[in-house]
Amino acid sequence: MERKLRMNLLKLLATLVLMQVSTIAASHKANDERLDAMDARVQHVERIANSEILVNLSQRINTLQREIQQLRGENEQLTHELDALKARQREQFLNIDRRLHSSGSRSVTDETATNSTANEGVLLDNSTVDQSQTSGANTDQQVTVSTVSVSASNAVAQDYKNAFTLLKQGKYEDSIVAFNGFLQTHSQSKYAPNAQYWLAEANYVSKRYPQALTEFTKVVEQYPASSKVADAKLKLGFTHYELGQYEESRIELTRLRAQFPNSSVASLAQQRLERMAREGH
Fold it and tell me: Which of 53, 54, 137, 237 could make an SS bond with 253 (beta carbons 3.0 to 4.6 A apart)?
């Protein structure tokens, strides 16, 4: 009887153990299923996140590409304007250089003609008329004064040419010193208006904009009949622009365009006004 009771107890314990094992196995299986479900959800979230990042990156790349295209367009516009300005300045340099050489040739010719006429006069006086020694001395003085005058004119032209050559060679600091010296020494010379303009130009290309503004203003105010006035007014507008004085620049360029219509300076003024409009100034 006791043995049978033990057997029943063992069977009961075995049944309980099996039931516990089954419960634990079922619990593990449920946990595994939950873990699988969570893993799937995590992967899904990662795919969504990756997709959003790619979309944002794609949008950013498209924006950058548009900005690059816009910058390239602006760069091409600036390059075109710069090339046009360089070509115009080069032509101005060459034109002044040709005029300078032409003026120098005329000076030499005038000097030769003056000396020849003076010499012929002396020879004629000595050969046909018996003049006094005082009269001969006066004639010699007149020839000497004429020669000195022509030599001085050639010296002025050479000083101007030297300063201008420095500018053409890109030696802007030296050309500024040379043009300043020329204007101090030869303020009444026929070359003074152009020397004043090129002094202003040398300051402008050296980015000394406040000084360039002063020098271009002198061209307009001190030499109103000069052929460089229109160019100086154009550069006044450009210099105001470089200084960030956009209203002054607009006024100067608009006035220039009205004063010199259908001219190259009016065209350049219009281009700068359009550029200012694009930039929102």
Answer: 237
- Distance in angstroms (rounded) separating the CA atoms of residues 29 and 52: 35
C-alpha to C-alpha distance for 247 and 263, rounded to whole angstroms: 23
- The residue with greater pLDDT, 253 or 100, is 253
Query: Which residue in this structure is represented by tokens 């034109």?
Result: 95
Q: What angle is formed at CA 152 by the lines to CA 151 and CA 156, rounded to 5 degrees?
A: 120
Q: Where are the domains of the chain?
A: 66-278
* DSSP string covering 115-180: HHHHHHHHHHHHHH----HHHHHHHHHHHHHHHHHHHHHHHHHHHHHHHHHHHHTT-HHHHHHHHH
Name the pTM for this structure. 0.51
Q: CB of 186 within 8 A of CB of 159?
A: yes
Question: In whole angstroms, what is the distance from residue 186 CA to residue 192 CA?
Answer: 7
Cα separation, 189 vs 183, in Å, equals: 8
- Encoded tokens for 151: 């030599």
Q: Are 161 and 100 in contact (CB under 8 A)?
A: yes
Cα 4 to Cα 66: distance, rounded to the nearest angstrom: 93
As given in the structure block, the two tokens for residue 263 are 């001219």
CB atoms within 10 A of CB 30: 10
Cα(201)–Cα(203) distance, integer angstroms? 5
Residue closest to 276 by CA, chosen among 243, 249, 239: 249
Which pair of tokens denotes residue 4? Answer: 């049978």
Query: In terms of Cα–Cα distance, which of 236, 223, 224 is closest to 265?
Result: 236
66-278: CATH number: 1.25.40.10
CB 271 within 8 A of CB 237: no
* 88-133 pLDDT per residue, tens: 665 665 565 555 444 443 433 333 333 333 333 322 333 322 333 3
